[in-house]
Predict the structure.
Amino acid sequence: PCLRGVAIDSNGNLWVADFAGVSGGQVYELTPTAGSFASATPTAVGTGWVDPWAITADKSGNVFVTDYTPNTITEITGGIATVVNTGGVSAPRGIAVDASGNLFAVDGTSSQVMELVAPAYTIVNIVSPGFQGPVDLAFEEAMGELDLVKDGEDA
């Protein structure tokens, strides 16, 4: 296994993107037992993952996963995985969601950040961070800011 991304959803469940799982990659959900993940059993969610890279959750409990090689972003709602964006974001890496449910995803080929507006998740804005190689994102709701991580460094 090669764990690439983790997120906690609004129900307190832990989500993990395994980039190199047994069958190419897998996304797991862990529900805490007695407030701890120590004895939680991972549940595989969805099928057909290739290279799940990053994962985020919105305040409604929806989970979003970037799948690097097939160039997709997938939404998981109620245990059902649905691809919400095919094309437009190449080799997607990091992903974040703002308070309105809009997604921000790192395009691994162009090193740009794409804004995908909910609910159709169409690309409406390309944010050029001014440097090469952003790999991950986080949205600070209290500040209304999008934070970028470049090769393990906060940008």
User: Anything to note?
Assistant: The CA atoms of residues 74 and 83 lie 4 Å apart. The chain has a mean pLDDT of 85. The first strand starts at residue 3 and ends at 8. DSSP finds no helices and 15 strands in the chain.
